[in-house]
Amino acid sequence: MTRGRLPRRALRVLVLAAAATALAVAPATAHIQVRPARVAPGDPVLWTVLAPSEEETGTSEVELAVPKDVLPFSYEHAPGWTRRLRMNTDGSVRSIVWRGRTSTDGLATFRFLASTPEREGTIAWKAIQRYRDGAVVRWIGSAASEYPASITAVSPSVPRENAGGEIGAAGARTPTAWTTPAPGEAQAGATGPDWIARGLALAALLAVAAATIAPARRRRRRR
Predict the structure, then answer these.
(1) Lowest-confidence region among 22-36, 38-52, 113-127, 169-183
(2) pTM of the predicted structure, to 2 decimals
(3) What is the DSSP letter of 141?
(4) Contacts of 163-167 spanning 24+ positions with Cβ under 8 A
């Protein structure tokens, strides 16, 4: 054996041990994520849930807890999946449960519309992922944990998305070609007829007609 070199068997044992240690301490890579990662306060947003599978049997259920002050109001149908809402006693949505099936390396994607909290801060999206073999992964930990919850920042510096709504940046209703202004409400940018100008023009025409007809009637009476 050459001095200063380890035997091949010992070197192989060290490599395998290092690999096993890395696998034991490495966090899961395919996390459940909720996008976008940054939103504006009080804004209707289109949310996307990404649920990749890590088990050989594939994902069978994803339950997403709805954070406080997040208000879901519309859901996109995911082909091959059913959706059920779990409600709080006050009628608000507590969690959204999707049930279906993915392949071993499949990716389940769900989308829904929900309004963001009115105040600046962060949203923690806690989720539970169930597999067909009965395994359960709870994505509810901190950002530094092995199974972290997805985080969304709420900041007034983020442009408003206004997904599926008609609320402008100042909170006022934005008129569209399909909206009818309420009584006494002018539609922004409308170019309607000038009724005052039309009235004056009509009055002038009537005056000219009267001035023309009156002399004709006088001449007839004289004859």
Answers:
(1) 169-183
(2) 0.64
(3) B
(4) 163/44, 163/45, 163/46, 163/113, 164/44, 164/46, 164/73, 164/74, 164/113, 165/44, 167/44
